[in-house]
Amino acid sequence: MDGKHEYKGVAQWEIAEVERANASDATPVVFVHGLWLLPSSWDGWRKMFEDHGYVTLAPGWPDDPLTRQDAYANPSVFAGKDVQTVTDHYLAVISGLRKKPIVVGHSFGGLIVQKIADEGAAAATVAIDNAPIKGVLPLPLSALKSGFPVLKNPANKKKAIALTFEQFKYGWGNNLSEAENRHLYDTYHVPASGIPLFQAGFANFSFSKACAVDVKNPNRGPLLIISGTKDTTAPRAFTHGSYKKQLKNPEATEYVEVKDRGHSLVIDSGWPEVAEAALQFVKRFA
């Protein structure tokens, strides 16, 4: 990382985060959110990691609005953002850093951070309840049900889709109370691009490399995959399946299960337990 980049397509607020990181002697940690969230969903994680001596960045997907209010005012801004486009955006941000960062991602962000690591751009990687990398074969019924609001209509590939509260409860908060589900939905949920779900769902039936990772790449760096045992959106078949593929890598590859946690595990009241597992791994390897 040389700290020099043209920042094509990178927002001014993201450039400011890079400059803040470069002004610090601390190791940078880049957080990558998934579908139906904004970068602000990482605020608690950022404080925890900075309290432990890291400097953090939470860039958005291309054109991400800064607030939930803005997201609902112009939901079409999310449409058409595919996995590789988003990966390239994060790589553009990362290329401006003077130090190779740790990358932490959730859901499709968990897939994207593995693609970032595959580019040799990560000092260490944590993927949390990740969307499956290409070659992971099981597609559990719970994941199909969670993705059905998007996958039910091929036209959704080009649209931005919001979940209803009931759909959110099943796919994200199936282990939570009604009150906590409502709080999370009203605080964090935003529309999301439809195309990544189609790319992941049909990855093993197409020649597309959007979800592909070279699991033998010696430049990948250490990787931890964290799995919530009650996740219906990214069930164990996705996370452990990705882990088994990644074990072919010569670098350290580890897997941690967090009991009784659903897809909301990075934003619900139990997030500190998950963040602590990620932090301890990062401390050992970066």
First-last Cα distance: 16 Å
Question: Which structural class matches the secondary elements?
Answer: alpha/beta
CATH superfamily: Alpha/Beta hydrolase fold, catalytic domain
CATH class: Alpha Beta
Percent strand: 5-15%
The CATH architecture would be: 3-Layer(aba) Sandwich
Low-pLDDT parts are none
Q: C-alpha Rg, in Å?
A: 17 Å
Number of domains: 1
Oligomer: single chain
Order of helices and strands: HEHEHHEHEHEHHEHEHEH
β-strand number = 8
Helices, by number, come to 11
CATH topology: Rossmann fold
Instruction: Note the main sheet.
Output: 6 strands, parallel
Shape: globular
Strand order of the largest sheet: 2-1-3-4-7-8
Mean pLDDT: 94
What fraction, in percent, of the residue positions are helical?
A: 25-40%
How are the SSEs placed, and which strands pair?
Blueprint: H1 12-22, E1 28-32, H2 43-51, E2 55-57, H3 68-73, H4 83-94, E3 102-106, H5 108-118, E4 124-128, H6 141-151, E5 160-161, H7 165-171, H8 178-188, E6 192-193, H9 195-201, E7 223-228, H10 236-246, E8 253-258, H11 271-285
Helix pairs in contact: 2-11, 4-5, 6-7
Q: Descriptors for this entry?
A:
two-stranded antiparallel ribbon, 6-stranded parallel beta sheet, AB_hydrolase_1, single chain, Rossmann fold, 286 residues, 11 helices, alpha/beta
